[in-house]
Amino acid sequence: MTHHYTVLHGGTVLTFDGALPSDAASRAGGDPRVPDAAGRRATAICFADDRILAVGTDEEILALAGPDSHVVDLRGRAVLPGFVEPHAHPYWEGVVAGMALLAGRERRAAIRAVPGAAEHLEPETWLVARYDPTGWDRPDDPTRDDLDRAVPDRPVLLAHVSGHAVTANSLALALAGLDRRSDDQPGRMAIERDDGGEPTGILRGPDAWDRIAAALPPPTAADGHAALTRAAARLAADGVTSVADADLGSTHGVAVELAAWGEAIASGAMSLAVALMPGLARIAPGVGDTVPSPAEIAAMLPEAARNRVRLDHLKLKADGALTTHTAWLRASYADAPHAGGPVHDPAVLAERVRGAVSAGWAVATHAIGDAAIAAVLDACAAALPPPRPHRLEHAMLLDEDLLVRLAASGIAAVVQPEFLAWAGATYRARLGEERAARLLPFAAFLRAGIPMPFSSDRPVVRGAPLDGVRAALQHDPGLSIAEAFHAWTAAGAAVLGDDDAGRLEVGRRSDLVILSRDPMVVPRAAWARRDDGITVVATIARGRLVAGRLEGLA
Ligand SMILES: [Zn+2]
Question: Which of 49, 142, 240, 409 is deepest in the core (most CB within 10 A)?
């Protein structure tokens, strides 16, 4: 097998090699030789197959080209490490890609659109769709009555875009065996009821989806293949070359989804680097249940996929979402007479973390409210040291004290800047101005030395990393452009423990994204205004073009 060299020259190569996680040191020192958060600059790069062979000047790199090399003039475009997406739901994204999303500004109009979403379905089959009430004039979840009026003749299940609530019509509730006698599961699933005790159709909590979706027809292997093929294409189009599924099993269960991932990777349908984070509550539902080890989960994958998948973190949930009033706060919501609550009692959370660590996992714990973040820090501190650093997912509402504790813990904050652009107004309504202003202090995370990769939680939001950069720069005037891109590259690779990704250095994996021009020379204000004009031109994973096009590149 011959390995043809590919040479990209005549552009800007941002290596992120030797990059500092934060620009603070280079700014403070004033020494121009200290690399900023984007690392050393070059103008050309050479790779063969899945490895980077050289990074340097045009002269140096063009000298490597032979008669059978692909030589591509970048014409001023920029090459960066492929974006790393350490918290997404690709399987779910692929499943929902074909579903309607009921959004917009008017609640009534969104509900009026429900019958249209059912138009192309076979009679009596389920309508499954998503709804996003964050922009509605009246942001109340649709009820069974709303849905019965809209679609009386087939079961309807709508998932809140956050994944933390669902709503269903009467037929769907009946098929799921859910009625006034059904019990809540404290912390995991709450059935909203009217004054007479009848379910309103709305269920909240991490198990809300599972409770109704269990009645759906079982997925086929072809469904899983189609979902992951769609997800791979969407991620690659946004410049992503590494992705983590941050709750394996949340749509169709761990066994079904693991089989789909294995098949998609082995067949080449999933060309990106993959990390899978099984939901702890799914692989060991009871607190005392034995937690399968990473090796035991890996053994469920086909041989050909096994060494392509990282299995390091289990997903836990400490609370819910601000949008659904289920995040756990220290003080009451500004627009509801309660403070949310924990998914697990703190002692149980600590026991769950201990169980995960003794089975060989680190944990990635969803915590949005300040009370939930404090409980996670306590639980992690009470367990033995993990094999890899733990992760805190979302980490949205902190005060100075929590920031100091988080920094001391060595736990990474895996944050989602696009949430702020999506639901900023809802957050202000939920928290009031003072607390909303404290959400996601990106520059403060970096100054405190907290590892801070960006991610999107897609498909909760659209999820393109460039949109995440825009939202982050708009939100936090203390954050630099280089820091924002570091958070989407080197920082993400570090939190996944993938030394092969996130930097353009000799010997690392040839995972690259080509942008229309150097993102560092665009004024910061243009990024924050969203008129930077930067686009993803092409994405290369393991040396293969997986999205976009570039003249001269096959
Ligand atoms: Zn998530």
Answer: 240
